[in-house]
């Protein structure tokens, strides 16, 4: 029961490499990114192209482990491995890569990656006070200068306004999608929505808008007709599941669950909060609010999870941590406590990109879904 919009998404993704290299030939610069904190409006306003580079595959981990420790987050190793092996077309297309000081592992990996590709690292302060916001606004100003220098294009007020409106449009459409996912039965599978988020980091923005608009129309019809997927309604929260990493959602939906929401950077952290205004400061303020576990005292994240549980009428929460991701793992204790206090069932899963634990995860998730 795939929607035509999801078929279109897969088609656009299949054509994306060719389209991206053509855009490059036409003179547009490509900015690789590793994080939801990078304000893509600024890159787009310089007529450059943002692409997400986080790795979600196991294949590139062995080559990464020649330089990086084995006991490191698989997302970091996979990403580094892609660059070292030169096997990711998006990485190879990137003229420059933007990193940010989020978690320790990523930050230190960037110091090694600097030897492989031109890099610019943004200083993301971990505190949430006004002094930290000032630092972040300056970092976003520096990004604007960098984009202007790299592209040779001036970022005008008009261009910035156009791109703020465009990226806000994507946010609005994702909000609508989440509204529709409140319906029972759920009008779309979690696996399809995950692909949508994964590819939104890679596709041309206009293509993402087109797919989302089509999808919303189709899902509105489904909701009107009462069509969709039955099953225990699951919210996933935690580390992002970037392209290539679908393991947990696949298992959940195999054993009787239906994922109806994702509190993740392949989920709500990608689109929540609009940019309210057209200045660099307005843009910086929106990104500063992203509640990633790398920030100190991140209680907004817990509030968001509780709100999503209520809004989406969730039966249970799967707290997802990538192995050796200390920030999300430690924060998991607070989230678990808050959910248990509210009587919300939660299971904590820690895994990597290998298939070796699939059966064990299946057994645990099946038991959880049966129990809730
Ligand atoms: S804003 S979640 S995209 S940092 S999983 S590499 S945190 S050890 S990916 Fe992330 Fe930006 Fe935060 Fe989102 Fe480190 Fe954890 Fe690995 Fe992570």
From TrEMBL:
Keyword Coiled coil listed: yes
Keyword flag Magnesium: no
Domain of life: Archaea
Pfam families in the record: HGD-D (PF06050)
Coiled coil (residue ranges): 133-173, 202-229
Keywords: Coiled coil
Family according to the record: Belongs to the FldB/FldC dehydratase alpha/beta subunit family.
PANTHER family (UniProt xref): 2-HYDROXYGLUTARYL-COA DEHYDRATASE, D-COMPONENT-RELATED (PTHR30548), DEHYDRATASE SUBUNIT MJ0007-RELATED (PTHR30548:SF1)
Name this protein carries in UniProt: 2-hydroxyglutaryl-CoA dehydratase D-component
Organism: Methanocaldococcus vulcanius (strain ATCC 700851 / DSM 12094 / M7)
């Amino acid at each position: 029961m795939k929607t035509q919009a999801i078929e279109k998404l897969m088609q656009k993704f299949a054509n994306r490499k060719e389209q991206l290299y053509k855009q490059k030939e036409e003179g547009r610069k490509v900015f690789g990114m590793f994080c939801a904190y990078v304000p893509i409006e600024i890159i787009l306003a310089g007529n450059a192209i943002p692409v997400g580079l986080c790795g979600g595959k196991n294949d590139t981990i062995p080559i990464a482990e020649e330089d990086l420790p084995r006991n490191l987050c698989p997302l970091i190793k996979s990403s580094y491995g892609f660059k070292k092996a030169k096997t990711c077309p998006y990485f190879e297309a990137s003229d420059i890569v933007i990193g940010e000081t989020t978690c320790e592992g990523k930050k230190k990996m960037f110091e090694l990656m600097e030897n492989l590709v031109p890099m610019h690292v943004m200083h993301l302060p971990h505190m949430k006070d006004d002094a930290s916001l000032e630092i972040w606004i300056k970092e976003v100003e520096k990004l604007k200068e960098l984009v202007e220098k790299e592209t040779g294009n001036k970022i005008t007020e008009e261009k910035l306004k156009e791109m703020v409106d465009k990226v806000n449009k994507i946010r609005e459409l994702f909000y609508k999608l989440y509204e529709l996912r409140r319906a029972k039965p759920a009008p779309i599978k979690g696996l399809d929505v995950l692909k949508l988020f994964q590819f939104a980091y890679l596709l041309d923005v206009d293509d993402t808008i087109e797919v989302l608009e089509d999808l919303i129309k189709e899902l509105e019809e489904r909701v009107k007709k009462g069509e969709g997927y039955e099953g225990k309604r699951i919210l996933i929260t935690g580390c992002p599941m970037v392209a290539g990493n679908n393991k947990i959602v696949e298992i959940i939906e195999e054993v009787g669950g239906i994922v109806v929401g994702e509190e993740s950077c392949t989920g709500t952290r990608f689109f929540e909060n609009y940019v309210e205004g057209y200045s660099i400061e307005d843009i910086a303020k929106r990104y500063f609010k992203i509640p990633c576990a790398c920030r100190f005292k991140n209680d907004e994240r817990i509030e968001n999870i509780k709100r999503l549980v209520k809004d989406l009428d969730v039966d249970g929460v799967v707290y997802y941590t990538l192995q050796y991701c200390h920030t999300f793992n430690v924060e998991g204790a607070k989230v678990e406590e808050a959910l248990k206090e509210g009587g919300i069932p939660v299971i904590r899963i820690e895994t990597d990109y290998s298939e070796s634990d699939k059966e064990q995860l299946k057994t645990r998730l099946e038991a959880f879904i049966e129990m809730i």
